[in-house]
Amino acid sequence: MRFTEKLAAAWAANNSLVCVGLDPDLQRLPAHLSRDAAGIATFNRAIIDATHDLVCAYKPQIAYFAACAAEDALRDGIDHIQRNYPHIPVILDAKRGDIGSTAEQYAVEAFERYGADAVTINPYMGHDSAEPFLRRADKGVVILCRTSNPGAADFQDLDVGGRPLYEIVAENVAQKWNGNRNCMLVLGATWPEQVARIRAQVGDVPFLVPGVGAQGGDVEKLVRAGRTANGTGLVINSSRAILYASSGEDFAEAARSEARKLRDLVNRYR
Amino acid sequence: MRFTEKLAAAWAANNSLVCVGLDPDLQRLPAHLSRDAAGIATFNRAIIDATHDLVCAYKPQIAYFAACAAEDALRDGIDHIQRNYPHIPVILDAKRGDIGSTAEQYAVEAFERYGADAVTINPYMGHDSAEPFLRRADKGVVILCRTSNPGAADFQDLDVGGRPLYEIVAENVAQKWNGNRNCMLVLGATWPEQVARIRAQVGDVPFLVPGVGAQGGDVEKLVRAGRTANGTGLVINSSRAILYASSGEDFAEAARSEARKLRDLVNRYR
């Protein structure tokens, strides 16, 4: 099954646009878990088991695993999802980007080594740096467009012939890179007006949206700006607010509660 | 010692601007080596031992290690350099870029886990994505500017108020990101005119230059365009032409010969 079909099926099966980001910070793991790769694996499995019926995707952030040599825990978490909840796609957040021969190695890392369904990439190096990912028609390619962080404005908002750079990126993706219909765009939740402009520009290309706050107003604006005609088109990620809702032994229940709250809030505006 | 001082000392000690890129492709290892992490480690050590007096830096490309779960071989190669040739800096080529909290994890990966002296990063996400690297005053931060691949033109060359985007990136780095004097820029060897423009713009910020061809003309134009007043300022990388100069048991000698040829060619024009 193609990634976009898998994502559409997960949206429908769980009636959810919420993605749980797996960012296992050793310093923030619940106190009763060991602060090592084994603790991370236990943590991830518990979070996944507690949220699998509330989400449309999981997004492990590879940096948290790489920092503490926990590659096995990353593989373990993805395996756990695919063995027990095979209908939920896994987006590996890696933001890779390099010349073609190197990008091919990164594609092997994401899709063969870790078995991810999709991977995030950085567009700065252009089409040939994306091509080794794009040509995997069954895999998703999630391209940075307008990110949620303060520094995003430094380059992404620069005026290129009357339009911001991120609109040129979106245009390239929609018109040239999406021949296999396997592209998504990263758009920060902090900028609903920008999300709306890009939605008008790219049709039904799905958006991965990080940076959702706790405030309902933000979610309302975001969903109304970014949803497609059938009320989907968004993968709304929350990591820390869900993962670290409690630092006690009830962390998984607390995560479930937060994930459900976000799902229901999002669904109110679809 | 700060990275830039270590680099300057290595330029002088080996009278060389050449960097050997460690891109250990399993498919291209010499036939007598095993096609696994152990074979990679053996290969890297032999290449390093054969070239250590001809180079100013080594640049392991992490994608090649990540694709085949050879993290231990990456660490082994860097350890081998630092134990035996501690005056030669190691630039980890990873092209990382993410929001601040995640970038901090990537900085831990590069500098603590692997002990690199410098790391390559992607500027697309802006200043706060670079900050966790930049604030390590003793470490080098090598920022993509104008890369050597065909797709580089897609976004890097876009006209921003009369200047290409990559010049805006270079300006930001030189004027805002380089407070600790620990920045470098990536500039492709394929574009000597662009290298010259950026050199005029950023003073003595060192350039990491991939994409050197076999033709002397390219090297002459590149060195004349990019050198600083004292005949340094460049880290000219060659990977495959050196690593795979021979696929036989003489691969290390052949690599030495290619590295020496490139060093001498570069030195002719400094």
Describe the structure.
The structure is a homodimer of 270-residue chains. Chain A has one domain (3-268): Alpha-Beta Barrel (TIM Barrel), CATH 3.20.20.70. Helix content of chain A is 48%, strand content 16%. The first copy, chain A, contains twelve helices and ten strands. Chain A has an eight-stranded parallel sheet. A two-stranded antiparallel ribbon of chain A has the order 6-7. At the A-B interface, helix 3, strand 3, helix 5, helix 6 and helix 7 of A face helix 3, strand 3, helix 5, helix 6 and helix 7 of B.
Describe what is shown at a glance.
Helices cover 48% and strands 16% of the residues of chain A.
Helices, strands, pairings?
The structure is a homodimer of 270-residue chains.
Chain A: H1 3-13, E1 18-22, H2 37-51, E2 57-60, H3 62-67, H4 71-84, E3 91-96, H5 100-113, E4 118-121, H6 127-134, E5 140-146, H7 152-156, E6 159-160, E7 163-164, H8 165-177, E8 183-187, H9 192-202, E9 207-209, H10 216-226, E10 234-238, H11 240-243, H12 251-268
Parallel strand pairs in A: 1-2, 1-10, 3-4, 4-5, 5-8, 8-9, 9-10
Antiparallel strand pairs in A: 6-7
Helix pairs in contact in A: 2-4, 2-12, 5-6, 9-10
